[in-house]
Amino acid sequence: MRRGYKVSVGLNDKKEIDFVAQKGNEKRYYQVTYMLGSQATIEREFGAYDGIADNYPKYVLSMDKFNISRNGIIHQNIIDFLLEH
After folding, report:
1. Mean pLDDT throughout 43-53?
2. pTM check: above 0.70
3. Of the N and C termini of the chain, which has fewer Cβ atoms inside 10 Å?
4. Buried (b) or exposed (e) across 21-43, using 16+ Cβ within 10 A?
């Protein structure tokens, strides 16, 4: 446990979710990639959340500085993410 969160790897219809962090009734999903340099990478990282119908926050973290959040999935620069937590 880190900061009270239980962290594990998740699966969604045979697609891996890099990290699932849970604390009590709170849950967050994280996909991490170096760069979103191709459409295939974007589809893979954002597509890992396809079919997850809950309303918990879902993140894609990368070194990219531009924001391509979509469909309620938050894209964030990983350095900015680490500095705010």
Report:
1. 91
2. yes
3. C
4. beeeeebbbbbebeebeeeeebe
